[in-house]
Amino acid sequence: KELVFSGMQPTGNLHLGNYLGAMIRWIELQKTMECIYCVVDMHAITVWQDPADLKRQIREVTAAYLAAGLDPKKSIIFNQSQVHQHAELAWIFNCVARIGWMNRMTQFKEKAGKDRENASLGLYAYPSLMAADILVYRATHVPVGEDQKQHLELTRDVAQKFNNDYAASIAENGYGDAFFPLTEPMIQGPATRVMSLRDGSKKMSKSDPSDYSRINLTDDADTIAQKVRKAKTDPEPLPSEAEGLKGRPEAENLVAIYAALTGTTPEDVLRDHGGSQFSGFKAALVDVAVTKLAPIAGEMRRLMADPGHIDAILVDGSDRARVIAAQTMDAVKDIVGFVRAR
Ligand code: AQP
After folding, report:
1. Counting atoms of ligand 1 from 1, which one is nearest the CA of 145?
2. What is the interface pTM, i.e. ipTM, of the complex?
3. Active site residue 114
4. Domain for residue 138, yes or no?
5. From the record, which residues define motif 'KMSKS' region (predicted)?
6. Of 141, 229, 324, 328, which sits with the fewest C-beta atoms within 10 Å of its C-beta?
7. 293 with 254, same domain?
8. What is the rounded distance in angstroms from the CA atom of residue 340 to the CA atom of residue 333?
9. What is the span of the domain harbouring residue 290?
10. Ligand 1 neighbours by CB, cut-off 6 Å
């Protein structure tokens, strides 16, 4: 059975990269597929989070999901820590995954920085918990940005190794020749890797110290206009064909953002704006960004005024998620050989 799973960390302001790289697809997918969207709070604490800030950010990310168009009647929306089976399955995956696999993860290397000895054990094991997030629902499709590709490959490796290691027990327990699916990453659209507005070689990220590097989902129209106006560019006008964007990362990024915001392609954008100076193109980009994002920011503010409503959605979502996760965990315990109450 096909099922979609994805999530975001409540580690700060969501930005245009999170929205265009992942969320915009989530909203499309919920129209045709069964979808589970998680606020991954247990991932967030792999680096220090102030408890009061974390609480607010969990509600804020949930508000962003709802404001952007996720429908809690169609999709399951919840926060990870309320479904304990994620942590339980992650432990089993810690025993399936190999240390060598974790050592190759570029996100760990980037986030741990030079002082690797001092990074949390959780940051190191992050991909194992991510595999559990996905596989506890036996999800078949995961819509994410380009930066998550390596973690999704690891998720497939974990599923494959579990299926191989426990092949005999999987068959004995009546699950055929494979228990976990090999999940397909969905990395699609013109903006799978939105770059920083200040530096076309770095991805737009929550943790960049410069707020001018990103457009936050909560930015007002003036702030968006200022950030786009200040965005780094080169002195040439826009080319008329996508080929001409090669070697011009800042131009390529702004064109990709425009295409993703308008549901078109870079080719379409250049057909209309090829030959334009950046001053003119940036003004058009501000228009489309404000049109798309201002209603989201407004709706987020409205939702944040009633935290009780947000919490109720998370409780309802986690109750529904737990039913699926509990079935998987019971099966996994039988397969692994744990004794359990029936
Ligand atoms: N720049 C980006 N372009 C496209 N997609 C992106 N995503 C993140 N940045 C970009 C996608 O957003 C989803 C959620 O990401 P996350 O919350 O797990 O955190 P992250 O990838 O660690 O996001 P940040 O903003 O880069 O946070 P920091 O600065 O803390 O590292 C994922 O699907 C991701 O691909």
Report:
1. 35
2. 0.95
3. no
4. yes
5. 203-207
6. 229
7. yes
8. 8
9. 211-302
10. 8-9, 11, 17-18, 21-22, 144-145, 147-148, 192-194, 203-207
